[in-house]
Write a structure and sequence with these properties.
Blueprint (H helix, E strand, L loop, with lengths): L2 E6 L8 H9 L2 E6 L12 E5 L14 H15 L2 E5 L1 H9 L4 E13 L1 E2 L17 E10 L6 E5 L7 E4 L4 E4 L7 H11 L12 H28 L2
Length: about 230
């Protein structure tokens, strides 16, 4: 059994299918809200998942708890935890590892394919992924590749879609595999104002339709990724 800790940044950005994976595998899950300023302990036997959110990784002036969160993530990495960052979580993770985070050239909201790099085929975590899966996106920021990290995936709109570090024990994903029908409905209810027509921004109708078409395969890939990270422990 793996001890799973989740850092959540917003009520409307929960773990989705990550919680389903943990329940199916018999892992104990503890969720903390980042705004509480209290973060999980650094444990070698843990999987720490840092979820998405509407703020930016550099918004420490508006959200002072971000500094404490980054310190906690650094401690977890140093302790040998497996760490997965999703969307904002990946941006925070990249920042912790010394990379810059800023605006992406275009916002990317919808269901779009990612391209895996040749290094992905050698990865213990991403090695079983197919080329060109269609995955979920909802972001305006992005991260640079951290020093010592390996680029795993890119997309037409975003150069850095995924990286791994420390042999796959630390993974950042700009995209989402965890969305469920409920996740999508809550996002559309809460963040519909973000759906301003742009080259890589879909309509609300298209976003909902994408969940029905792609979420099942995304869930399969999520389980593959999390199982791969779990065995690294």
């Amino acid at each position: 059994m793996t001890r799973v800790f989740l850092i959540q940044h917003a009520d409307f950005e929960g773990p989705g299918a990550i919680a389903d994976w943990a329940a199916a595998r018999g892992h104990k899950v503890t969720t903390v809200m980042a705004a509480s300023g209290v973060f999980p302990p650094a444990r070698e036997d843990a999987l720490l998942v840092v979820l998405g959110g509407p703020m930016s990784a550099g918004d420490e002036a508006q959200h002072p708890w971000l500094a404490a969160e980054k310190a906690a993530i650094r401690l977890a990495i140093d302790a040998g935890s497996r760490v997965l960052g999703v969307c904002l979580g990946a941006q925070i993770l990249a920042s912790v590892l010394g990379a810059s985070v800023g605006r992406n050239p275009e916002p990317e909201i919808g269901w779009f394919p990612i391209s895996l790099t040749p290094d992905a085929g050698e990865s213990l975590v991403f090695g079983a992924f197919p080329q060109g899966p269609v995955v979920g996106h909802w972001h305006g920021d992005t991260f640079e590749l951290p020093p010592g990290a390996t680029r795993i995936a890119t997309s037409e709109a975003c150069a850095n879609q995924a990286f791994e570090y420390a042999g796959g024990r630390v993974v950042g994903m700009q995209f989402h595999l965890e969305w469920t029908a409920e996740s999508v409905a809550v996002l559309l209810e809460t963040c519909a104002a973000d759906l301003v027509p742009r080259p890589y921004v879909v309509t609300a109708k298209e976003f909902s339709a994408g969940e029905r078409e792609y979420a099942q395969e995304c869930r399969r890939l999520l389980y593959t990724l999390l199982d791969g990270m779990a065995i690294l422990g």
